[in-house]
Amino acid sequence: EQSGISGSDMRVVTYIEAITEALAEEMRHDERVFVLGEDVAAYGGVFKATKGLLDEFGPLRVIDTPVAEELIVGAAVGAAAMGMRPVPELQFSDFASCGFDPIVQQMARLRYRSGSAWTCPMVVRICCGGEIGGGIYHSQTNENWFFGTPGLVVLDMIVSQEESVYPMVPAGASLQEMVLEPPGDGSEEPEPRDLA
Q1: d(C-alpha 61, C-alpha 54), whole Å
Q2: Nearest alpha carbon to residue 35 among 14, 51, 15
Q3: Is the pTM of this model over 0.85?
Q4: Which of 3, 43, 92, 163 is buried deepest, with most CB atoms within 10 A?
Q5: Which tens digits make up the pLDDT trace of 104-125?
Q6: Does 138 qualify as catalytic in the annotation?
Q7: Contact 100, 88 (CB under 8 A)
Q8: Rounded to an integer, what distance in angstroms lies between the CA atom of residue 153 and that of residue 151?
Q9: Burial class of residue 124, CB neighbours in 10 A (0-12, 13-18, 19+)
Q10: Residue ranges of the alpha helices (H) in 44-196?
Q11: What is the pLDDT of residues 64-84, one digit of tens each?
């Protein structure tokens, strides 16, 4: 234990441990939550953010996918539309372009396009940044692609204190993270909007 913010006692965990714990907590709380992505199951994720989840939740809730970002996000959109709560992980933001269409054209707009008949409650975890020294295809910070997209909430997490991460997850696998999430879960009435 270590004295934390405002003198309170706070357990010290790494950023990745906070992510893993938050994912596990959400998965325990809601059986509809599942994780999918490249190497998220047996390997535990490229940054080990999903380490141990396969053992606790099994292969139907921690799903390894092919190297196919459009499939990862597209399958998650379909699952979310049918009532599940997917958390797809894209290992590096450099490859978000491969999943761009289902993120921007489907996930972000499903609720609007269907007159609120359908929702898409999901979180996309995308690792960003060059702090790992990954080279040209594993180091971009292209979250600006999504900032202006109606229907998305983008959290760009650059944290200086690891304990500040936990309340904002599921998210994160490196020190900079994009989380794309459509606002609301569909249970609330949409705000009236002047479309003129």
Answers
A1: 8
A2: 51
A3: no
A4: 92
A5: 999 999 999 999 999 999 999 8
A6: yes
A7: no
A8: 7
A9: buried
A10: 53-57, 69-81, 100-101, 110-113, 144-147
A11: 999 999 999 999 999 999 999
